[in-house]
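Bug: token stream looks shifted between consecutive jobs. Job 1:
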Amino acid sequence: MGKERNAISPTREENYPEWYQQVVKAADLAENTPVRGCMVIKPWGYGIWENIRDSLDTMFKDTGHKNAYFPLFIPKSFLQREAEHVDGFAKECAVVTHSRLEADSDGILQPAGELDEPLIVRPTSETIIGELFARWVQSYRDLPLLINQWANVVRWEMRPRLFLRTAEFLWQEGHTVHSTSEEAMEETKLILKLYADFAENWLAIPVLRGEKTESERFPGADCTLCIEAMMQDRKALQAGTSHFLGQNFSKACGIKFQSEAGKEEFGWTTSWGVSTRLIGGMIMTHADDNGLVVPPKVAPTHIVILPVTPKEETRSQVLDSCNQLAKELRSKNFSGGSIQVEIDDRDLRGGEKYWSWVKKGIPLTIEIGPRDLEKNTVFVGRRDQGAKREGVSRSSFVEKVPGILEDMQNNLLIKALAFRDQNTRDIDSKEELYAYFTPQNSSQTDIHGGFALTHWDRNPLWEEKLKNDLKVTIRCIPEEPGDPGTCIFSGNPSPGRVVLAKSY
């Protein structure tokens, strides 16, 4: 028997980074642009982002948050107000220094009209939003202030990769002000729980919840909480973060309020965000060697109907049947909305058309031809089951389709969770840890490692050594770190296990 043919080359095992790029291309999600590090998100990819955005937006509003929009440009002096913050982002900033272009003597456009103060293209918005919040907050009656914005940001990325690391990307950033530290911390935890719920129940990506170490915190935060997911190459992806900022930005920006007792106090703030990186995480969690696999809850289209019309005399009859089926399917509901159906009647060979949708990861494909009309059947392909197809009763399929989509959604999560569990282990010696994260192939292209749950005494020296020796980081201190033990590096007491992994 010959080697199985796949739609994506190379396969995951052969070259995972290149496989990822080819999946993005084959699924027609995005592509690079003439501006280095910036991508265009194509309709199928943007449709996924719209569903992510809209679902999260509902969750934010259900918890009392309101949307606003803030400037793309931030005065350089604002960024300098919080010292740790500026240090954390300085190397990633894009800077605007001039306001216009003028032609020189050779007709070449040159920057002119130098600005009195350089403007930073938004890498994150804590400082500019803090400036506005200082105007909006005067009294305890103004609190809590719960704001979210959907926006683009720019962080000058030297090694871009579509959806994972790009110079410009789309995201949401929440910013809140509270009267007490306890309320602000409650908000930080609430958002992390919301992110975890969304990752698992919409994207079918199982995540670990925990706290970042001091060295991995958001610049200027007192505490950063995160969700960490395992990709199919066993590396970790930080899928979302929620930051307790304490009073650091309030003091830097002058966010003060008069308390109920009449005392002037600084507010307690949070910030939190997820981005189009979630699409990269979805790809690397579910895609296979035939292309993308999209969880039904975020799929732009749930079902594509492919008319099979080998003879012109039966074409109109087949198309009429396809249109009627689409109408019946659209009357069904899934995940709080109507099922989205597309009829693909492009003049392409049947196999070419079918495989184009397999590679895009659409949940269900339905083929209907003259024989199906005679038998009252449809030929159905479930993307979570690879590329196999089977004939089923048309009426039965229509009746069961919401349950089929729900089953697919659940199956993807179960599969991803099983993969993570298989590649997570307790490690209790330095020797075992180093062996776990050392590839057999010196080129380091082979898939190895996973999540290591290890005792650490919280000394940052060991954290730095791991980065230097193995390119391994402490992904988080889990919410439930387990029983105390002994640090594998020092032999000193450890309050509990931490999660170690290579990461994106």
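Job 2, same session, no restart:
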Amino acid sequence: MYIETVKKTMNLPEKVRIFDTTLRDGEQTPGVAITVDEKIRIAKKLDKLGVDTIEVGFPVSSPGERKAAREILKLDLNSSICGLARPLKKDLDAAIDCGVDYIHTFIGTSPLHREYKLKMSKEEILNKAVEGVEYIKDHGITAEFSAEDATRTEFDYLKEIYTAVEDAGADCINVPDTVGVMIPTSMNYLISELKQEINIPISVHCHDDFGLAVANSLAAVEAGAQQVHATINGLGERAGNASLEELVMALTTRYNIKTNIQTELLVDMSEFVSRITGIKMPPNKAIVGENAFAHEAGIHVHGVLQKAETYEPITPEMVGHTRRIVLGKHTGANAIRAKLDEYGIELNEEQFERVFNQVKSLGDKGKCITDADLKAMAQTVLGKAKKEIVKLEGFSVMTGDNVLPTATVKLNIGGETKTAAKTGVGPVDAAINAIQSLVSESADIELKEYHIEAITGGTNALAEVFVIMGDKKGNKATGRSTVDDVVMASVEAVLDSINKILVER
């Protein structure tokens, strides 16, 4: 509602081109090195994703960069294939020799770059920029020019150099916020001012040093920028670049601006690049993170189950994601019932209450309950003995180095409380021995089989214990328990099995 009102004040383009620099700037992420074969695989997926231009690297920098460019060009992709080059003949020739159809050339223009990096005058830099663009155009190649550190460059000089490269034949000018110092309002102002002077498309390349790369890129689009540079997962130098998936979805759904991106492939693309680079995305990463469409709080889950739009601005299917109901201490009964319905598990009210209370208890301990955990808990409750003749009133174990494992168990058997302490080869064995000694007066029941399994990974995984107990008359029964303590799970499973035998006798 509010967006539609303010959009009337914007200079929005009908369509925005997506210039992907994952293979160039993204590879500059500390600790990331992408092989030629991996670059080829990423390029194929970027092309399928629908990016307009793929910046494949900096050809002059190494033979590997040149090989990657040549191999990608052999794929005959729909995306334009771009090489980065300084406005130096050796750089430009390296890119041209690779056969690229697009060259992105750049030179520093800010006072800092002029004085400390380049040690060149304004005039020298302007001449270099013009010569570089002219050289590219003389070879019939699309030319994009970047004034490196543009956002810390005097506006009059910035205007002068951009006007000069436009006159030299540049097809596009790019405005890099090289160290991410802009805020959206200032980026909007800068692009608006440049639009009054420049007649060719304007692009932006925003870094995320203050977490504003996406916001600054969108502010540029609001002022009329027709292209944005981005990387998958926001990879790049230091804090990275504008995140392609965030940019695209904001453009598509907030601004209703067209791109060529197949948005349903975004999650797959993100996960693919994450695997290759080894840079794992935070679970709360917008659009593609594991938790992007995960809900735990009871009120939120209830709302989403009734109508997804209550707590989801877009559907997970739009980006190739899936909705996930997370069970924990904030989970309401509706969420648990919805999950159980999804699994086809029917519980009566008493059984449901047991599962619900266990979820809450585990959540209070800081555990998130997985689908597998919930299924196991529900199946355990469903399989419980119909009557508890033997009830656990308490137990303790003592174990450790040079200590004989000992368990003390207190049971209520038919209304009478009994206690026993026994040793064993371990705490579980000791606890089972104590239980058997107490129950032996009522029935001679012994352990036949014992199985334990961690349902999910991690040190706080739920333990699922399955046992078979039997008596001398040949009666047997299974017992199962699913809790976060191995000894407790074992005790509960054994007692469940014993109760089933006693009930059936």
